[in-house]
Amino acid sequence: MITKEQELMSRHTTFKVGGPARYYLIPENTGEVRAAIDFADERELPYMVVGRGSNLLFSDREYHGVIIEIGEHFSDMSIHLNNTVVVKSGMTLTNMASRLARMGLAGFEFAGGIPGTVGGAIVMNAGAYDGEIKDTLVEVTVMNEKGELVKLDADELELSYRHSILQEKNWIVLSGTFTFRSGSQDEIRAQIQEYNKRRREKQPLEYASAGSTFKRPEGFFAGKLIEDAGLKGYHIGGARVSDKHAGFVINTGDATASEIHSLIEHVKRKVLEKSGVMLEPEVKMIGDFSWDLDIF
User: Fold this and answer.
1) Contact by Cβ (8 Å): 64, 45
2) Residue 212: active-site member
3) Mean pLDDT of 159-186
């Protein structure tokens, strides 16, 4: 297991910001994941898992705990009977969608451009273009706080819009079992390409971000509410509400986590004043943001 100290989280998140983690561990197998949990317990430190860091905002201050990276060492896929596929949690969604297309398995095209891993996608029930993880997920294998392996049916996860019970548990997703329908390789690839074309046209993919910054409020679209509040293009330092899609807060190159957090809070406040709707961030905030200056 690779062990690092004071590892900058800006190197491991799609926002490209974040201060150092006290310890940063990269296990290479299930046994080392268990050892990583023991490592944290022995030091009486909290631990959390990252994949590609695509939905996280780490504070500029130190994360006084243990980060466990579940990445390329956990990126295998195996196909079983009845179009059932077992995927380890470190595989990227883009890789998974591409491999399924080559196998002629349909139902995962929506995820072909989501910048995250299978594990993170399961935890938050990731989705796009009317598709969600829960549509094809059958079962997950997790490691609990005691280092024990536990299998859970998808129904036990209480999957809903951008939510699962895993968000309230300190369990580590190791793999997911999915089932898909047979389809045409060409049609599956064409659908993935079409979704990715839409993303390029409508989303600020040229900038560092965490994807959609806010959850979709019931009956509304976050981007429209933000634009109606006059915030498209609004910026605090290097953090900016995208001119291309107001639902994205982007790092234009030199933003700090504090600036991004302050901008998110500003957007929430102004949208509430304008429309009466309280936006809820889709991005998970990690660390201490209490020291941010109130610069609104």
Assistant:
1) yes
2) yes
3) 95
Asked if residue 73 lies in contact with residue 27, where contact means CB atoms within 8 angstroms, the answer is yes
User: Which run of H or of E encompasses 101?
Assistant: helix 93-102
Check if 62 is active-site. Answer: no
**pLDDT over 70 for what percent of the chain?**
98
* Candidate list 59, 164, 212, 258, residue with the active-site label: 212
Tokens representing 230?
Answer: 């006059």
CA gap 61, 19 in Å, rounded: 5
Among 162, 240, 259, 262, the active-site one is: 162
CA distances from 4 to 25, 67, 275 (A): 6, 10, 46
User: Model confidence over 98-145: pLDDT tens digits?
Assistant: 999 999 999 999 999 898 999 999 999 999 998 999 999 999 999 999
Q: Which of 47, 54, 46, 59 is nearest to 71 (CA)?
A: 54
- The DSSP annotation for 149-195 comes to EEEEEGGGGT-BTTB-GGGGS--EEEEEEEE-EE--HHHHHHHHHHH
Alpha helices in 169-285 (DSSP H): 185-202, 222-228, 257-275
